Amino acid sequence: MARCSRSAWPGDEVSVVDFLRATPATADAIALVGESGTWTYAELDHAVTTRADTLRVGGVRPERVVPVVLHPDAAGVVELLALWRLGATPAPLNPRLTEPEREEARASLGGESAGDGSGAQAILWTSGTAGRRRGVAISADALRESARAAAARLELGADDVWLASLSPAHVGGLALVTRSLLLGGTLVAVGATDAERTWALVHGRGLRAVAPIRVTHASLVPTQLLRLLEASHGQPPPGSFRCALVGGAEIPSALLARALEGGWPVALTYGLTEATSQVATASPQLTRQKPGTVGSPLDGVHVRIDSEGEILVRGSTLASGYVGRDVSPLCDGEGWHHTGDLGRFDDDGDLWVTGRRADRIVSGGVTIDAVEVEEALRAHPQVGDACVVGVPDPEWGERVAAWVEPAEGQLDLDDVDRDVRSRLSASKVPRLYHVGGALPRNPNGKVDRRAVRAALARSPEAP
Questions:
Q1: Which helix (H) or strand (E) holds 160?
Q2: pLDDT in tens, 35-60
Q3: Which listed site, 119, 257, 309, 328, has its alpha carbon 20 to 30 Å from 41?
Q4: Residue 116 pLDDT > 50, yes or no?
Q5: Chain centroid to CA 172: how far?
Q6: Pairing verdict, β 65-69 and 89-93
């Protein structure tokens, strides 16, 4: 595993493994709400212990990495906590992954043990070099410090009711679980929800088994926010809803303006898996004052912009390192993680994210490595070469688009598309195609992604 050092966060330590017992909430406070009922902190503690005993009998051992498909529901939360109670390291897999993608993720671990000094509390997935999947080892310290820093920035506490609106396989989804429970709040985990269900939960409706509980906080990607605005039919959220934490992709200015005009308390955030979710966050007040900024870095997180405009991050929430094949160091020699994103600071010290790496696409909050999609396209015998880019989209932020260079003769685009869908999850499949001749290249012989993007914007073809 490639690692870098992290500075310790000052203050009393709280164990993530035993946080159900260490939480400041009282034992009879509601910790978890699911479709079938509620669990107080004491009841959740008992449910986690019971599930951990079952997993132990089933062969799960401490210090082992356990790939597991987790849904954002009560059962998924209990499973996650039970693995932690056992001392195992869950490696959550998104339910939307295809089986080949899951197998590739499992294989990349190579029987990795968490007892190698990494201190991994969880392993989350990101794309590595040449599109190969690799894990990001997140420590208990990083999870705790992320929760503490977010609480300080957004004034979070035990009276918050968080909606489990993202998969625990997403760093934002994992962080909101630990953030809510470490702070003694309530987590509403009823599985994947559409916008209408989310709108009902914000109003305290739609929970059959419990008394009305109104969601006060939700982590959303821009596409989810758009759907929620549509479901609200122009009505503002109730005063009990205090924060829509929006990140995971660039938010279109028109969407942000619409949300703010509609009275939504939007907190814009910039984060990444390697930083255990949030790097910088603008409170709802700052977002309203300066729409578009993601605010200053969180406490314990340091950010600088290098000479080429790239955002570099280090600090107490940084991951321990990468796990998997062909891993590179997470940090440079001075402890900085190079994000590949571009940004600038304004005179107030607030961060503005201005762009991202050419080979990375963010569509609907899902980060997609263009190289992985290109390899899937090249696997088809009719494809000689391919270049994948993101093109702007008002709904998804970006759409995955591909220039496909035929190997020879005619190319059956429908067959190519079906083949890609069998290899990749839906979010990675190109929505736009351009079947052309040789890919445009610069004088150094590299594919000119800017020219590819321009061509796809002019004349896309859909299968």
A1: none
A2: 888 999 999 999 999 999 999 999 99
A3: 119
A4: no
A5: 5
A6: parallel
Segment 416-445 shows an average pLDDT of 85
Per DSSP, the three-state class of 454 is helix
**What residue type is 418 in one-letter code?**
R
CA atoms within 13 A on the CB side of 313: 29
| CA distance linking residue 62 with residue 170, whole number of Å | 23
Which region among 21-25, 44-48, 241-245, 402-406 has the lowest average model confidence (pLDDT)? Answer: 21-25
CB atoms within 10 A of CB 290: 16
Among 122, 201, 214, residue whose Cα is nearest residue 168: 122
Distance CA 278, CA 78 (A): 24
Please report the pLDDT score of residue 122 as a whole number. Answer: 95
Partners of 33 in the beta sheet? 38, 188
- In the CATH hierarchy, which fold is given to the domain comprising 2-356? Rossmann fold (3.40.50)
Using DSSP bridges, classify how beta strands 243-246 and 266-272 pair: parallel, antiparallel or unpaired: parallel
Give the Å distances, CA to CA, from 400 to 222, 370, 373, 426.
16, 8, 9, 11
Residue with tokens 């986690």: 48
Structure tokens at 143: 């999870």
Query: What's the Cα-to-Cα distance from 149 to each of 173, 366, 380, rounded to whole Å?
Result: 16, 24, 47
Instruction: State the span(s) of the chain assigned CATH 3.30.300.30.
Output: 363-458
Alpha carbon 128 to chain centroid distance? 16
* Phi–psi pair at 425, nearest 5 degrees: -70, 160
Q: Give, as one character, the DSSP assignment of residue 73.
A: B
pLDDT tens, 310-329?
A: 999 999 999 999 987 667 88
What is the C-alpha separation between 24 and 426, in angstroms, rounded?
41
The two tokens of residue 46 are 């008992």
Per the CB < 8 A criterion, the answer to whether 342 and 309 are in contact is yes
* Encoded tokens for 169: 């396989």
Question: CA 212, CA 100: separation in Å to the nearest integer?
Answer: 41
CATH 3.40.50.12780 boundaries in the chain: 2-356
Helices (H), 190-348: 195-202, 222-232, 253-261, 284-289
Distance of CA 201 to the CA centre of its chain: 22
Mean pLDDT of 183-193: 92
- CB of 274 closer than 8 Å to CB of 318: yes
| Residue 444: band (very low, low, confident or very high) from pLDDT cuts 50, 70, 90 | very low
